[in-house]
UniProtKB/TrEMBL annotation:
GO terms for cellular component: cytosol. This is diphosphomevalonate decarboxylase. NCBIfam families: mevDPdecarb (TIGR01240). The keyword ATP-binding applies.
Length: 328
């Protein structure tokens, strides 16, 4: 009853921002992402009647009680589905630089969902796996697949129509995502808390909901047509709209720092100089810059001149989950 799985992070091109059901992780809007090749999580799960509690080792360290609780709640769902009440030992390694502002929860829960279902003997397809991963962290629902992925919000109260599906694979369209790490000062509001506060208090949230479904259709069409300019424009505009909702929240908050804005402005200048680059930003100060392979070096050279830029990671569209051989 052992299995090991690997899952990659993803960056949202059209953002998931808000839940309609916090227990089931049902979002208020559909979202769209690209899975990235650089950053991933590898997780081994072992269920055994000999274990008397769940154990979770993350990067060779025993997880803290808060993390442990999230994992146990997640495993309980898998135990319920399988009808087996066995405890598990989980060994997980994150190859995600936390400072780069990528949510390791996306690759983390996707890898855990894949390894745990396999270890306990559940026969699930990718759609079901996406639904299971979603209940650990919403964005994890998208990391089941490689390439360009859409997470459909669904309509049903039980979440049975809420899962991610692939649009085109990582081989179908090569783009670059440069993850630009900037120097940071303030502590961030976690995405879970930030989206909740926004849904509950921001008068701009209704505007977000009005716009996001249209943005998603534009982005999906752009991906199918492989129209980089069309995709870049809608991705950047969608990120700006998401961040605008936080300014209206009570209390208001902002993920950007001055360094974030410097990078955003530099991207605008690149465009003015005829290089197609577009930014997107998640719940943190770092910026992800989309460009075409031919412009990758020009974009990097320009951005790395900024003193606020600490490091730039180069990513390509990456694969979905894979199962690895079990170590003896
Ligand atoms: C801004 O998936 O981390 O990155 O479902 O509460 O775990 P929970 O939130 P999470 O939120 C991600 C928010 C985002 C946008 C996105 O990835 O779509």
């Amino acid at each position: 009853m052992k299995a090991t799985a690997k899952a990659h992070t993803n960056i949202a091109l059209i953002k998931y921002w808000g839940k309609r059901d916090e227990q089931l992780f049902l979002p208020t809007n559909s979202s769209l992402s690209v899975t990235l090749d650089k950053f991933y999580t590898e997780t081994s799960v072992h269920f055994s009647p000999d274990f008397h509690a769940d154990r979770f080792i993350l990067n060779d360290q025993q997880a803290d009680p808060k993390e442990m609780e999230k994992i146990t709640t997640f495993l309980d769902r898998i135990r319920n589905l399988s009808g087996k009440s066995l405890y598990a030992t989980i060994d997980s390694k994150n190859y995600v630089p936390t400072a780069a502002g990528f949510a390791s929860s996306a690759s983390g829960f996707a890898a855990l969902a894949a390894a745990a279902t396999k270890a306990i003997g559940l026969d699930v397809d990718y759609r079901q796996l996406s639904q299971i991963a979603r209940q650990g962290s919403g964005s994890a629902s998208r990391s089941i697949y490689g390439g360009y992925v859409e997470w459909q919000k669904g309509e049903k109260a039980d979440g049975s129509d809420c899962y991610a599906l692939p649009i085109i694979s990582e081989q179908d369209w090569d783009i670059r995502v440069l993850s630009v790490e900037v120097t940071t000062k303030a502590k961030k509001v976690l995405s879970r808390e930030g989206m909740k506060r926004t849904v509950e208090t921001s008068p701009f949230y209704s505007g977000w909901l009005e716009a996001v479904e249209k943005d998603l259709i534009t982005a999906r069409d752009a991906i199918k047509e492989k129209d980089f300019e069309k995709l870049g424009h809608v991705v950047e505009a969608n990120a700006l709209k998401m961040h605008a909702t936080t300014l209206g929240a009570n209390p208001p908050f902002m993920y950007w720092q001055s360094a974030t804005v410097e990078v955003m402005q530099e991207v605008e200048e690149l465009r003015a100089a005829g290089i197609e680059a577009y930014f997107t930003i998640d719940a943190g100060p770092n910026v992800k810059v989309l460009c075409q392979p031919k412009d990758e070096h020009a974009v990097r050279d320009k951005l790395s001149l900024l003193t606020v830029v600490r490091e730039i990671h180069h990513c390509r569209p990456g694969p979905g989950i894979t199962y690895l051989p079990i170590e003896k």
